């Protein structure tokens, strides 16, 4: 079964097809890879569920949407096609926050703009036990999913989620503002991997003509959203650091740090008033 599934996935351009086939088997049968390796001679019926998973993965549907789960930082999150799938690159923002605010009692309030699955806000709250936070998203279904993830990770009592256009309804200041806004230039979206273009929410990808529309909305408001000693940490796309830094300078903000991901690619900016 796994050999046939791997061959099918490989023919359809799925990378690491053998590994993907094992993960789909685990998902359908509840049998981990270690069990598969030690019971390879057992006869098992091929279920419709397994066949369906293989077909859907072969068509490009992301594994996270098939399983409905995705790990981020130390959290286990539920994801749906209403939310962007959390990625390891975004953990760069959490690392930057911990590096710049190492005292775990120094952060009391956190704002997450474009919260999606809630991954950034919930990761921050998990590291700062006295903090409370607000996640903002323009889609009600997305905010509902973030609320569910807060409950799944025992953080619901410290997290609230608001449906709004960025920070429009907020009139308070925060110790930390986090955001992973849309940053893909509109004309570049069709060239992304098919599992991204066909399945992930387009509104979470589309950054306008040059990919910077969201930054022009978010950054000028940071002087009103940040406490005097507060920090804002924003993710951006490859090669966008200078443009985002220029928007920040024009808004009267200082660049504290540019942060690279594990591949050495600059992916986040730390700003202060």
TrEMBL record:
It is an enzyme of class 2 (transferase). GO terms for biological process: methylation. It catalyses: L-glutaminyl-[peptide chain release factor] + S-adenosyl-L-methionine = N(5)-methyl-L-glutaminyl-[peptide chain release factor] + S-adenosyl-L-homocysteine + H(+). Substrate binds at residues 180-183. GO terms for molecular function: nucleic acid binding; peptide chain release factor N(5)-glutamine methyltransferase activity. Residues 94-184 form the Methyltransferase small domain. The keyword Lipid biosynthesis does not apply. Its EC number is 2.1.1.297. Methylates the class 1 translation termination release factors RF1/PrfA and RF2/PrfB on the glutamine residue of the universally conserved GGQ motif. Belongs to the protein N5-glutamine methyltransferase family. PrmC subfamily. This is Release factor glutamine methyltransferase. It comes from Acetobacter aceti NBRC 14818. The lineage of its organism: Bacteria, Pseudomonadati, Pseudomonadota, Alphaproteobacteria, Acetobacterales.
């Amino acid at each position: 079964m796994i050999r046939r599934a791997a061959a099918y996935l490989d023919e359809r351009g799925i990378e690491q097809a053998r590994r993907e086939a094992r993960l789909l088997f685990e998902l359908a049968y509840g049998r981990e890879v270690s069990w598969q390796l030690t019971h390879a001679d057992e006869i098992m019926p091929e279920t419709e569920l397994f066949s369906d998973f293989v077909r859907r993965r072969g068509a490009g549907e992301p594994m996270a949407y098939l399983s409905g789960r995705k790990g981020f930082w130390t959290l286990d999150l539920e994801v749906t096609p209403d939310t962007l799938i959390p990625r390891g690159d975004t953990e760069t923002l959490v690392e930057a926050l911990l590096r710049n605010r190492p005292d775990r009692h120094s952060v009391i309030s956190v704002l997450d703009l474009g919260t999606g699955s809630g991954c950034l806000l919930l990761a921050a709250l998990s590291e700062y036990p006295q903090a409370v936070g607000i996640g903002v998203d323009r889609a009600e279904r997305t905010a509902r999913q973030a609320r569910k993830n807060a409950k799944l990770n025992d953080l619901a009592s410290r997290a609230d989620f608001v449906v709004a256009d960025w920070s429009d309804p907020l009139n308070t200041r925060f110790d930390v503002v986090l955001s992973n806004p849309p940053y893909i230039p509109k004309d570049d979206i069709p060239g992304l991997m098919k599992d991204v273009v066909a399945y992930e929410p387009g509104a979470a990808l589309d950054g306008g003509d040059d990919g910077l529309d969201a930054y022009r909305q978010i950054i000028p408001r940071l002087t009103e959203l940040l406490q005097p000693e507060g920090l804002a940490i924003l993710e951006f796309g490859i090669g966008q650091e200078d443009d985002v830094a220029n928007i920040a300078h024009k808004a009267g903000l200082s660049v504290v740090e540019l942060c690279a991901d594990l591949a050495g690619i600059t992916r986040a900016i730390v700003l202060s008033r």
